[in-house]
Design a protein that fits this description.
Blueprint lengths: L2 H10 L27 E6 L6 E4 L5 E5 L14 E7 L3 E4 L3 H10 L6 E6 L20 H6 L12 E2 L1
Antiparallel strand pairs: 1-6, 2-3, 2-7, 4-5, 4-6
Length: 159
Amino acid sequence: FNTRELVALLGFTSGEEGRTLVLKKKTVARSPKEELFPEEKTVELGTGKLGVSFKGKRNAYISRVHESSTLGGRAWVGMLVNSIIIPGNTAFSGMTAKEAARVLVETSNVGGRKLVLKAPGSALDARNIPDDASIAGSSQDMSAGFSTGTGLSGQSRRI
């Protein structure tokens, strides 16, 4: 980290409990670089645009948290999308990037949504796309309704 990145990260995570900052002497050999993610994190979502991008043909994961994102400091690049919970007991899980983006875009005016994220490599909940006409019906209907942009595989989905 440079100073600006450290200050930004500390600011983003200022509301998190249990933060730890470890400082080491330069004379001590550096430990191998690693990223530590929470095993599972549930993030309350407001209405409107979230400012994140997803990738993943099989399982959606966060590929970018934009500077203006409301999720800055609460969600990190690389975290897997385990499920999206919409108030009224509707839960979506096992989604591709396109499906996750579609669910979030189509419910962007709904308050109280929750995004359940997991650490990379974690086991995810089984695929569950409820048959709800307001969220594009079956998973086949849902996938068919997506715009693929340039048609490149692995295209990031920004929402």
